[in-house]
Structure formats: structure tokens, C-alpha cells
Fold this protein.
Amino acid sequence: MAHAHSVKRHTGLMDWLTTVDHKKIAILYLLAGGLFFGFGGVEALLIRLQLIKPMNDLVSAQTFNELITMHGTTMIFLGVMPVIFALMNAVIPLQIGARDVAFPFVNALGFWTFLFGGILLNLSWIMGGAPDAGWTAYTPLSTSTYSTTHGVDFYTVGLQIAGLGTLIGGINFLATIITMRAPGMSFMRMPMFTWTSFITSAMILFAFPAITVGLVLLSFDRILGANFFEVSNGGNPVLWQHIFWIFGHPEVYILILPAFGVISEVIPTFARKRLFGYSSMVFATILIAFLGFMVWAHHMFTTGLGPIANALFSIATMLIAVPTGIKIFNWLFTMWGGQIRFTSANLFAIGFVPTFVMGGVTGVMLASAPADYQFHDTYFVVAHFHYVIVGGLVFGLFAGLHYWWPKMFGRVLNETIGKWTFWFFAIGFHLTFFVQHFLGLMGMQRRIFTYLPNQDFDTLNLVSTVGAFLMAVGVLLFLFNCFMTAAKPKGVANDPWEDGRTLEWAIPSPPPEYNFKQIPLVRGLDAYWKEKMAGNKEMTPAEPLGSIHMPSPTILPFVMSVGIFIAGLGLMFSSEKFNNSFMSMIFNNWIVVIIGLVITFGSMLLRSLFDDHGWHIEPEELEEEGVKA
Amino acid sequence: MTSAHAESVNGSLPHEPEKATLEGRNKVLGFWLFLGGESVLFGTLFATFLALRNQTNDGPTAHELFSLPTTAAATLILLVSSLTSVFAVQAMHRHKAAALRLWLIITVILGLGFLGLEVYEFHEYVTAEKFGMTTSAFSSAFYTLVGFHGAHVAFGVCWIGILIGQLYKKGLTVVTAPKVYVSAMYWHFIDVVWVFIFSVVYLLGKVG
Amino acid sequence: MTTVEQHQDDTVKHGHRHEGPQKHVVVFIFSIILTAIAFATVMAGGVNVAFTVILLVVMAVLQALVQLGYWMHLKDKGHLMPIIFMCGGAFVAFTAIVTALYWVWW
């Protein structure tokens, strides 16, 4: 048994391209997610500018369709999902007392695949037009008959690739949470963020394959001339709606559950109280996940499934209010009688509670099928889902970022700017979306690029646009805060909030690459808090100091993703008529697809043939670092 | 974490070498999770097929198209190959590397036989029956479902083939053992999916 | 570890008892019989369609369960998580199939 395998340590850019360290992958996810979030935000501002006044002609109807499609798709798949994955990567191995994730290679592969899928999707803007069939890409609008540019091809192929990355990321976290927990950390001692991430990953596992199939069917229709949704040849567009929403509804719970987890971490920390009703929180999370798979047809009430189906899905949808209500009350009772500190993280967490309740209430309204016939495709729906996704998820993500920033980067974000961020964002958010409820009730249709004057829409739309810009100011303040903080020296304490409850606060900020010098022994829920209350300064180790095995860095995940990216481009343009005969030759004969697949499968083969022995950090090195710190 | 990659068959290889290391156990568990996702993937493909199975657009129908003897032969081949991969894993647990390789080689040959039959079948449909991807919604759904399964078989054949090579070169170790075990799981899963394909696509197609 | 109540054909030097091939051959024969029943019913023809459909589904599910349990070892100890996640996958697949059967055409 050889001990020290020599391993090539990379620096600079190569370090980031080859890293398999979950903490660095977290930062990569945050950067990429932030970038796409910026794209989606600019698209949102353009939408709001177009709607600032009646009969505006800032953008054309076609561009408007592209903007709303790309705004929705980008925000959901490329904006908030990666930021969720950033938090999961940064925090979960630390919270469960693990040195690493179960599959570091797969973790890196998941990130790069997501990134290249996102890049492919956004290339559409400069390669002949973005997708324009809405983020749901309903057929027949999205078939080649009605959507003649390559826009929807960018959508199907780009999302397929990005979705693959998300799926394998989800599998990695499931396995990590199942097998890598520290001694003593039973499932019912896991922090809530870990629990919600676990359930979210399980939902990713079961929901994403459905959209994989849906996207395959749509691309076969568009590229190979298949007839899944081609009514004249026997296809059925309703099938697409079902497949999309069998994925799509769980997807929105995939988004919100991690936010629930963040709130369940932030509120107890800053209330200096343990989370009220921990086991009911776990139970509610599982129940929400289960019900999340049972309610997809409430997006299709007006499709005409009939009164029985509509009634069933109505009731199932309303049921979700029960576990969600349990969570809301648990958060309130956690704060009740606590010594609440209004840090920026906690402001976002507390702001989350009423905002999310408002989104939930309109959700129950929409769940009523007869009423939904009135609400459907109006701004009421737009207001509803922005209340849950922005007022819920994005508030949660801001709370999580402010909360864990010191753990990720070793520097606390500026609290004053953080509070300004919150107030700008929160006020801007309510200005933007609260009025949209009324616009919807007054009959303003969503996804239409303009509206006529004198329908009482004018003022409310103006208010909404002003609000959107206030939100943008909030986001810019956050960015400014990040850059300003990055310029400051590192060196915050292990537990900068001083009331940290979970294991991540027991180790340095940012943690060393092996996370825990010795794997800690967990003696209860809120493991670190428990030790602090017992008068201990550190966790009790569960193992003697020993040599630590680490996985080797590798460029293969990056190369594999490049291969998939090339194959995806080749597939999209396989039947394109190029002016250039060389281009036609390589694309029309599938040569580009083959090159891409050879790169990907070749890298896979290399990974299989050459064992990764990893490398070791010896106890002496640990001691040295201990002295330095 | 153990790094027992240097151990060989002659050393103290444990009874179930695929579960000897944390990496090995993670791999098996992770693969089970992946199969959970694959179930949804195939479930959705089956759903699509079931929704569109009668949409023949004046093209060939399932009843006219399918020949049950071919399907029965394909079924038998795949079922036997699933059994041989069980034997391969049993040989691995007994640390009989030669028997392990032999059973895997038989599995791969059977897999190739299945693929050959499927290619022949598709070829007949396209040329003799004028039943292509674009013929009808039924044809699209048929080729996509059965083709996805066929692609899985093809991937499995390549994968197990590469593992046989690795077993010759590296021998049976705690690194190669989980790969063999996981590939056997994959192969069984493909067989289970086929059980539903011959029941739902072929037999049900004949029933009408 | 191997199950004690099953046949053991050999015990290797380090004391582990190995399950024999007999159990798996039995599963194989069982699978063949189920497959044969399904094929025979359809090939013979003339059987009530609704009955045939139910029979086919039951035969397929039985065969899948046996192979998952024995060949893929889901029935062995330490497979709680795989069972949970396979059931989850099967459940979502089932909802998709029910949907396709009842809510796509009406």
C-alpha cells in the first residue's frame, strides 16, 4: 500500500478547471449562476421597460417573446439552480462532518455540463435568434412548423445538457448525504438545510429524467421529423404538456425546498433558539416532495382534462398548503421568545416568511379549478409565481449567501450594505409584483408584448417597472458588497455569527481542503451548539489524527463537457443548409456530433482505464498547518 | 478512507470485494440512485408509447408489423445473458478471475446477438414495411422507446467489453470489483426494461 | 453476507459461505415460465383482451420483481436506500403511465 502518490497540483486557471474540491466547485457554481442571473435580470428589465407604457415599441413582439422565454428559462435552470447548488456544495459536506462528497469527479462533471449547457442556450442570442415559445415550450408553438428559427433547438439541446449536469449533481448529493455522515449523525440529527437538500436531490433524480425524455421527443420532432406532437400525423400536443409538468411542477419544489432549508438554519441561529418542531419540519418536507409529484395537472386546468381530473388535482394542490403552513408556524415559533438579531441574513429570512405566505395564498386561489379559468394566463399567475420564486427562493438565497459568505470566503459581507440590499430588494420586489395581482384580475394577459391605453393598466405597469429597477439597485448593491468585501483581508473566526449551531461553524473559515482534520463525533441535533453548551470549544474527534486521502484534480470533467457541447451544436445544425460546403459536409454528415461524442466517451474511457489513486495529506502536514493557523 | 487498490487476487481480497472500500460502496449506491432515475426515464418513454400506440397514421400497425418468434428469440437471449452476468458476479465473489472473465465474455456475446436481432428487425421494418421514424406518431414512439433500450444495450456491451480488458490487465481488485458489480446491475436493469418492452410493445401490440 | 437458509455449495478458505447458482437458476426458470405464459397466451389468440392485458402486466411485474430481488440483490440486507429510491422511480413512472393512458386522449 503506497502512501504518497505524487500528484500534480495546478495553480491559477488550471486549478479551477481541474478542481474536484466541493468548496471550489461551490464558488464556480456561484460565479456561473451569478452570471446567468445577471443575464436573466437584464432580460427582466427589458421586459419591464417594454411594458412601462401602453403601445410601447422599445422591442418588437418577436424580441419580446424571446426575452420572456429566455428570462424564464435562464432564471430557473441557469440562475437559481446553480446558486442552490453553490450553497449545497459549500455547506452540505461541512454540515454532515464529511471531508468530501461521495463522487468528487461526478460533482465537477455536473458543474461543467451545466455550464456548457447554459452557454449553449445563451449562444442563441448571437446565432440566429433565441427560443421564443415560452419557458414551457408548449407544442405546437415550439414545433418546427411554427417556430422556424433554431431558437427552440437551442432550448432543447441546451437544457438537455444543463439538465444532465443537474441530475448527476443531485445523485452526488444523495449519495453524499446517505453514506458520508460523521459518526453519530443519524438522519434525524441532520441540519434542516441538509435535509431539504436531500429531498430536493431526490426530487431532481425523479423529475429530471421526465424532462430529458420530453426534450428528446421535441428535438426528434424538430430535427428528425418525428411525429410525437405533430397532430396531422397522429401526434398529441397534450402529451408534451403532461411530460413538461410532470417534471415542471416538482421542479418548483426543487427550487423552494433548499430555500426552506436556508431559512430553517438562519432563523434559529439569529434567534438563539433551536428550530421549533424539527421532526415536523422533516415530515413536512417529505410530504411536500411527495405531493409535489401529484399536482402537475393544476397547470393544465384549462386544457380540458375534465371535471374529475381537475377536481382531483385541485384538492391535491390545496393539500400542499398544510405541510407548508406547518413550516411557516415552526419558523414563527422559533422566533417567538428568541433573542433576535436583525443581521442582513436574518432580514432576508424574516422577510421571506410573510412574502412566501402571500405567494402561498395566491397559490391556493389558483388551485381552485373554476377560479383558475379566470386567472389562467393573466398577470395574476405571473405575480403568484414571482412571489414564491423571488419572494421565496431568491430571498432565501440572499439569506443563505449573507449567512454562509464568511464560511465560503473567509470574509463577512458588509452589514450596512447588506441591509440596504435587503430594503431595496424587498421594497422593489413588492412594488413590482404586488400590483401585478391586480393587473391580472383586471384582465391583463401575460406573454403579450404590449397593451392598449385606457384600460387602467397604465399606472400599475409604471409602478411595476419602477419596482423592477429598485430590485436591480438591490442586486447591484449586493455585487458591490461582494467586490468590496473581496478587497478586505481574510481572517474571520470559525464561528463569525457566534451563535452557529451546526458543524460548519466548528472549522476554520474558509475550511482547509480536507475540511475536518479529524472527523467529529456528533452527539445530537445542532451538534456544534450542543458542544458549546457543554462547555467544549471544539468538537470531540471520532478518530485519531491520521493521513487523509484526497482525490486528484483532473481536467476530464471539463473535456467531457466540451465534448457534449460540440455534439449538441452538431445535432442542432445537422440538417442546416450552409453556404460553405465544408461546413455542410461536417454538419450534415453528423461528423461534428461524432467528434463531440468521441471526446466525451474517450474521456470516460480514460477515466475508467487509469485509476485515480488520489493523494494523501500526512499528519505532519496537518500539524504544520495547525501551527500556522 | 482505504486506498487498497494495490491488493490483488492473491492477497486478502474480501468476500464481496465490491463493498470493500468506501469508494466501492458509494459506487454501488450511486448506481442504484441512477437506476431510480432511469426508471422514470423509461417510464416516461413507455407513457409516450402507450399514448401514441394506436396513432398509426395509415402506416403499418403493431399487429401487422411484429413477428413474435423474433421477439421471443431476443427475449431468450437477453434473459440468458442476465443469468450469465449473475454467474459472473458469483465467480467474482469466489475470486475466480478466469471464470468471471469467461461469464462476462458470454454476456457480451449474447448482448451482441440481441443487438444484431434488433438491427435486423429495424432494418426489415424500414425497408420492407416502409415503417420509419417519420411514418406516424406510433412509429416515432416505437423507435424512440425500443431504440433507447437498444442504445442502453449497446452501451452495456461496450462497457462490459472494456471491463473484460481491464480484468485481464489489472486483475480482480477492490477497484475493478465494484465496476463489475455495477455493470452487472446495469445489465439486469436492461433486462428488466426489456421484460416490459416485450410485454407492452410486442405482445400487447399483437393483442390490439 | 449470504443468506444462510439458501443452498451453499462451497465454503472458501476464509470462512465466507457463498450462495450457489441453484437459486439463480430457479429464478431463471421462473422467468422463462412467466415469459412463456405471456407469449403463449398471445400467440394462441382468442383469449379475452382485458384478461390478456392484465395477465401480461402481472407476468411482467412478477418477473421484474423476482429479478430485482434476487439477481440485483434488492431482497438482501442493507438495501433499504436502493429499495426506497427504486420505489420512488417506479412510482413516478407509474403516474406518467396512468396519465398517458387516461389523460392524453379523451
In short: Residues 558-611 of chain A form one domain.
